[in-house]
Design a protein that fits this description.
Distance between the termini: 60 Å
Oligomer: single chain
Number of strands: 14
Shape: globular
Strand content: 5-15%
Helix content: 25-40%
CATH class of the largest domain: Alpha Beta
Length: 513
């Protein structure tokens, strides 16, 4: 400090003015960098990793694959619905209901991205980080339309031979709610001919088809906290009811499935299979959670499975303390009971007829949802059925993926965009933390810490993550097993990609899915 003061005395105020000027220029440059944002980097900044050379985007659009993205592996359920879709005659493209025995997309191929490193997307709005969420979504789109990927999380040099795409399926409800309009604006600004289809409108169409035009009833919507707070389903429901001239009184009840998607994808802050006691990192439902409170007075109604550390607590199960959910099935129990309690407390409620599974992770457990609903329909206290009057005997579980597949097929027909390739050309990528970026913060599991994941600033356009091919190095064995059992057709495509694609030849035998 004395040295600096000496210089100031010798050089006068000019040195001080120079320092202030340099700081001013530096601040202006930083502000400009933030203002430019991800979209400007993609479209205009040729030195940016995210830059897209639009002038050389493939002209023969119909020969390109279809891009599908989600915040993790849950969107594979949407892809599975598309892959197995058969409602049309493939030769005439006419609707036949049960199809012609030939998969409608059998001559298409797909590029799938799961942004696992940044998931769950549903938490960003809750943490007042909607802008950061939209930035992630645009980066997902940039990956799909671009050609860059890494072979592994350790690589410092990217590859540039990934195909571009001709259409986008947003296989994530939160990304649809907060990002579909942003994506469409970006695509228009980029002057690209790319169709964008989201799962929310498709899900609403599917649930309304279950009601007669003058029928009364209730609809449940279980989705991520972000999707619920966006009111995306409520807005779409109101719009489509008016458009289709429904006159019946259809009430909608939302339940934020806090922790459920994260638990299905194995996020450490929601589930830890090897834990034996309550954990500091846990952020799921609890006695003290401000938005997802476990009511100890309702433990019988939740009907939790207490075995094998599926519930973590102190004390005993009759009088537990620091209660934490530690299994997917128990998460489902909690959220279904919470949804039905909202209906019970509504004086004018109509019986629940259908539930929209408003997160692409949930269909993995559709049988568990159905079994839990059956148990609740038959649940009694003091010889009284607590929920039966508020429920249809059989409640339809609506997976928006089926209607999403239908919308995509109709688009291909209308745009004459069938390309005559093979499903087995499909490719699968997952995001992992970019450990070469010194600014990131990861936990002992190698994932972003919760504080870092949701605490990053908007507009600092960095490579927080790397997109790499699916492999056993980047996807938990429990997730791989679930995919193989629940959606075997997609599992087969992933396995083929790992074993036969030029982008995965580097994988060792035990690293392939």
């Amino acid at each position: 400090m004395k040295y600096i003061m000496g210089i100031l005395k010798k050089t006068g105020s000019w040195f001080f003015i120079f320092i202030v000027y340099v700081q001013f220029i530096h601040c202006q440059m930083n502000r400009h960098a933030k203002r430019s944002g991800i979209v400007d980097n993609i479209l205009n900044n040729k030195s940016s990793f995210f830059y897209l050379d639009r002038q050389n985007y493939p002209e023969n659009n119909k020969m390109l694959p279809i891009g599908v993205f989600d915040s993790g592996t849950g969107g594979l359920t949407v892809l599975d619905a598309i892959v197995n879709f058969d409602q049309y005659n493939n030769r005439t493209h006419s609707y036949e209901g049960k199809g012609d025995g030939l998969r409608d997309f059998c001559e298409e191929y797909f590029i799938y991205l799961g942004d696992q490193a940044n998931m769950p997307y549903g938490n960003y709005p809750k943490e007042s980080k909607t802008g950061l969420l939209k930035e992630h979504i645009i980066k997902d789109v940039q990956f799909l339309i671009g050609n860059k990927y890494y072979l592994s999380g350790d690589d410092s040099t990217y590859k540039g031979d990934k195909s571009s795409i001709k259409a986008i399926v947003i296989a994530c409800n939160t990304a649809t709610a907060y990002g579909k309009t942003e994506i469409e604006k970006f695509i228009e600004r980029a002057d690209l001919n790319i169709k964008v289809i989201g799962v929310i409108d498709a899900g609403v169409k599917g649930v309304l088809q279950l009601f007669a035009r003058n029928e009364d009833g209730s609809i449940g919507i279980i989705a991520t906290a972000g999707t619920v707070s966006s009111e995306g389903y409520l807005k779409a429901l109101r719009a489509q009811k008016d458009e289709m001239k429904y006159t019946g009184e259809i009430l909608a009840f939302q339940q934020a499935g806090i922790g459920l998607a994260g638990a299905i994808d194995g996020a450490n802050e929601y589930i830890e299979p090897f834990a034996t006691m309550p954990r500091k990192e846990y952020r799921g439902p609890s006695e003290n959670h401000p938005e997802a409170k476990i009511l100890l007075s309702m433990l019988k109604r939740y009907n939790f499975d207490w075995g094998d550390n599926k519930m973590l607590f102190e004390g005993d199960s009759k009088y537990p303390k620091k209660l934490q959910i530690n299994s997917v099935d128990n998460y489902i129990s909690y959220h279904l009971v919470s949804l039905l309690e909202k209906i019970r407390e509504t004086p004018v409620a109509r019986p629940l007829k259908a539930i929209i599974l408003g997160c692409t992770h949930y269909p993995f457990y559709i049988e568990v949802f159905q079994k839990k609903l059956e148990d609740l329909y038959n649940y009694q206290e003091d010889d009284e059925y607590i929920y039966r009057i508020f429920m249809a005997e059989y409640i339809e579980l609506v997976d928006p993926a089926i209607n999403t597949a239908n919308e995509m097929y109709k688009h291909l027909v209308e745009s004459d965009s069938f390309n005559g390739s093979s499903l087995y050309e499909s490719e699968f990528y997952i995001s992992v933390p970019n450990k070469l970026n010194s600014s990131i913060q990861i936990n002992s599991s190698g994932n972003f810490t919760y504080e870092y994941k949701y605490g990053r600033e908007l507009g600092l356009v960095q490579e927080y993550v790397k997109r790499i091919p699916f492999s056993r190095n980047s996807i938990a064995s429990e997730t791989i097993f679930r995919i193989s059992v629940k959606i075997p057709a997609v599992y087969e495509l992933i396995h083929y990609f790992d074993c036969n694609n030029s982008k995965t030849v580097f994988l060792k035998e035990n690293e392939r899915i």
